[in-house]
Structures are given as C-alpha cells and as structure tokens.
Amino acid sequence: MKVLFVASEVSPFAKTGGLGDVSAALPRALRGRGHDVRVVMPMFPRVLEKGRTFELVIAKATLKLGPNEVHFSVHSCPLPGTDVPVYFVKCGALFDRANVYTQDPDEHLRFAVLSHAALVIAQRLGFAPDIVHANDWQTALLPLLLKTVYSWDRLFEKTRSILTIHNIGHQGTFDASVIPQIGLGADAHRLHQEQLQEGRINFLLTGILYANAITTVSPTYAREIQRPEHGVGLDRFLRERSDVLFGILNGIEEGEWSPATDVHLPVRYSADSLEGKEACKRELLRAARLPYAEHVPLIGIVSRLVWQKGFDLCSAVLPRLFANKAVQLLVLGTGEPKYEALFSDLGRAFPKQVVHRAGFSEPLAHLVEAGSDFFLMPSRYEPCGLNQMYSLAYGTPPIVHKTGGLADTVSHYDPRRNRGNGFVFEHFDEGGLTFGLASALSAWGTGRGADRAAMQELRRRGMAQRFGWDERVADYETVYRKVAPHVARA
Ligand code: ADP
Ligand code: GLC
C-alpha cells in the first residue's frame, strides 16, 4: 500500500509528547511490512539543530489560501533506521518559531498549510496514496481537502483517508472569521453548519465528519469518547460514525525502549538480571542529588505537566505521604506553572525526598523509567499513554488511574493470586490516588526479604509482556484495507 502519513511532530525530529513517538514508530512498522510510506511534517528550527543533511525535493511551491499567498519548499531526510522519506515543509513565516504549538493568531494557518502542502507534495512527486493518514486536529482538514479542493486530480481518485485521534482534548477550534484563510474556497459550506452558526470552525470535527475511517489509540478510549463525559462535545458525532471508529492500542519501540539495550542507562538489565536496575536507581538518585537507600521506594514521573495528567490530586495527597512515609519522588516534566510550582514546592519542603527537574530530556526520561521503583500516572484521561508501557518494560510497576489506554494495559496487583502488573485506582479523587499509592507501598512492604522477592516477581511479570508494534500494525492494515477495497483486491 502507498501511505502518506502526515503529522505535526515526528520523533526524533520534533517531539512534545506521545504523538511524536507514534508518528515515527507506526510509519517504521508499516515500512517493515513492505508498504511504501511517506511522512510529512513541518520544518521546525529544532529539526535542523542536530546537524542532519537534507535533500531538496521541491524548491518552490505556492499556495493561494484566500487572502494569503504562502510559499514553501520541501526537503527530505530518511526516518532513522529506515528508507522512509520524511518530507519537511519549510515555510519560515509559519514554522520558524520556538515551539511546535503556539497561541499565535495564525495557528490555524500554520496547520492548514501543512495539510495542503502534504497533498501538493504528493502531486509534485506523482505519488498516488492509497491512504492519507492524518493525526489529530493539526492535520484533520485533510479528509475534506481530498473530497473538495484536490478531488479534481486523478492522482487521488482511489485515495482514502484515516484520521487518528490521539487526544480529543485538543480540537483546533477557531473563530469562523479565519475560514477564508484555510483554502477551502467555495467548499467552505461543507464545514459543519451548526458550528458555523455559532461562529466557530473545529478542525478535528471536520476530520471526524469526512475521514473514511477514524481510529483512536486504545479500545477503552474509543468507547469513552463516544460518551459525553469524555467526548469533549464531539461524542455525538463519533457515535454517528461508530461503524468506522476503531480503537487500536499504541505500541512501543522495543529497539529504543528496552532495558537490555538502552544506550541511556549506566547499566543494562533484563528480567533475569535485575541488579542492573538497582544500579540505575543509584545513578538516578545521584544525578538528582537525593540520598540513596535501598529500602526506600522511589516513585518516578515523566510527563507534560498539564490538566489532563491529573496532578491536581497530588497537592492534597502527596504532602501527607512525604510527611508520614519514607518515600522518594522524582519528577521530570514541564508545563503549566501551577504544577511546576507544586513539585518544586514539594522539593523545597521535603529536600531529601522530592526533586523536580523541569525541561525535556530524553536520556533522563529513560533513566527515570529504569531507576524508579514505581511510576505514577494519575491521568484524568489518557487516550493511550506510552510511559506506563515503557515502565512495564523496565520492571517499574505503574500506579495509574483506570482510564483510556491505562485501563487497557495496567491491571491491579493481587498478591494472593499473584496477578496484575501494577496498581490501578478507579475513582479520580484523593481517595483513589491514596488507595493507588497505599497499594504500591503495601506491595513494597519492608523492601527486604520475602517482600522484595514478591516485588521482583511483579516486576518480571510486567517485563514479560510485549507491547511492540508488530500486532498493532496489522490492526492498522486491516483498517486501511477496509476503507480502500481496491487495495484488498491487489
Ligand atoms: P502525551 O502524549 O499525552 O504527553 P504519552 O505517555 O503518550 O503522553 O507520551 C509522552 C511521551 O513524551 C513519552 O515518550 C515521554 O517519555 C515523553 N516525555 C514527556 N515529558 C518529557 C520530558 N520532560 N522529558 C523527556 N520526555 C518526556
Ligand atoms: C496523546 C495522548 C496519549 C497518547 C499519545 C500518542 O498525546 O495524550 O495518551 O499516548 O497521544 O497516541
């Protein structure tokens, strides 16, 4: 199959969260199955930072989007470890910004241009995709563009579109006055009428209405977003399209996230040699300037510090925990000032127990996964979540709220039956988080003798699970074939 995969971030070129990971891993896995995959993303300044070399693919292209003329060029570089070309849309006026996502008044234009540019690249290269795979609101205009502005081109005659929802909390909602700028011309009437009457345009809704199929990143989240509690206003549209809505769990890149081969760890380890994990804990605490004690459990967090991730619960629960128990916490994450302040304040009040590291560090993220005894994700909602799967692979049982992909990957530890791979709380409230933490600390026990042996067994159970992309990619192929029947016949 020929697949044009379009995303706002692709690791290692640009990554702010799990979308970046998945936008690299899925194309890589599809290529592994023999498909002709091409990836399109913006040329952000950070893409150039690492001394990569690029090939010029298109020297100059121009888009006329209502009142604006937008010029861009296209440069390519293979996705590391593959021969998959990544086409970078270079448009300084739109993408030369410090951040991938902005609050700037032209945010709609930045990503409308990405979607148009992806189809222009296909046209210029004569690449006739069977599937155009869009991801999140930033590229959710693609399904409608294929059915309108670009439908005249026979190149796209057989092209079908897939929209993957990684996070319904971000929809790309803008004032209707921007509509002339997104390049739909006379087809703007195909935007959702109710929205237009309310004076808004919603990119993600547009994708939901026009994609040939919609996927989201876990089976539980696929059910959740069809209900008002989690649909963020789009549940009724998703219910209407439930026959073409599929939940496919994300995978993890085992080449990158495996403690036996991880280049970021001081000592590598596996289920049979967990001593290496203890060495990682020592190194992590040394780097964090926290005292090391074998019998004191260390909880790790690596996260965007935003509302979605549920840290509001922490302000009530954690101070009591640190005042009463010998427990340590290491937080790697940046985001909203109030959460950064919460963890910094905890660090000041409990200097031997808590450290907050702001910033984005891939090596430190790996070390936190390896060196922590537990991994905390109290997310309010979590479409899939990758960190809990990384932590399972690293023998670091996750403590999670039962939602979305966390519910699909983590099961509550039952010491009597010796089942479960982590700690799961059902109610998103202080009692829930307290229960989750208490269960983990009770499993830890004294941290010695029989308690320690039971913990090791729990770690090994998580490490034995497989979360690789091999099976997931087959699920995506199934969806591709469903929407593009001419491919199924080939
Ligand atoms: P989300 O996409 O909602 O942020 P995921 O769990 O799917 O959540 O993915 C988060 C990804 O971002 C993981 O690969 C995680 O390791 C990474 N990450 C988040 N914050 C940081 C950080 N401060 N430093 C390094 N990696 C981070
Ligand atoms: C989003 C979600 C996260 C998911 C990631 C990749 O950022 O918040 O749960 O794992 O996308 O699909």
Fold topology:
Layout (H helix, E strand, L loop, with lengths): L1 E5 L11 H15 L3 E7 L2 H4 L6 E11 L2 E11 L6 E6 L1 H4 L11 H19 L5 E5 L6 H6 L12 E6 L7 E3 L17 H5 L2 E3 H8 L2 E4 L2 H6 L3 H4 L3 H6 L4 E3 L27 H14 L9 E5 L9 H13 L3 E5 L4 H13 L4 E4 L4 H10 L2 E4 L9 H7 L4 E4 L2 H6 L13 E3 L4 H15 L4 H16 L4 H15 L1 H5 L1
Parallel strand pairs: 1-2, 1-6, 2-5, 6-7, 7-10, 10-11, 12-13, 12-15, 13-14, 15-16, 16-17
Antiparallel strand pairs: 3-4, 4-5, 8-9
Helix pairs in contact: 1-19, 11-14
Bound molecules: adenosine-5'-diphosphate and alpha-D-glucopyranose (GLC).
Report on the structure:
The chain folds into 2 domains: 2-251 and 470-489, 3-Layer(aba) Sandwich (Rossmann fold), CATH 3.40.50.2000; 275-465, Rossmann fold (3-Layer(aba) Sandwich). The termini are close together. With 490 residues, it is of the alpha/beta class. It is 39% helix and 18% strand. The mean pLDDT is 97. It has helices at residues 18-32, 45-48, 92-95, 107-125, 142-147, 193-197, 203-210, 219-224, 228-231, 235-240, 275-288, 312-324, 337-349, 362-371, 387-393, 404-409, 430-444, 449-464, 469-483, 485-489; strands at 2-6, 36-42, 55-65, 68-78, 85-90, 131-135, 160-165, 173-175, 200-202, 213-216, 245-247, 298-302, 328-332, 354-357, 374-377, 398-401, 423-425. The strands form 3 sheets. A 9-stranded mixed sheet has the order 3-4-5-2-1-6-7-10-11, with helices on both faces. α1 (18-32) packs across α19. Bound molecules: adenosine-5'-diphosphate (ADP) and alpha-D-glucopyranose (GLC).
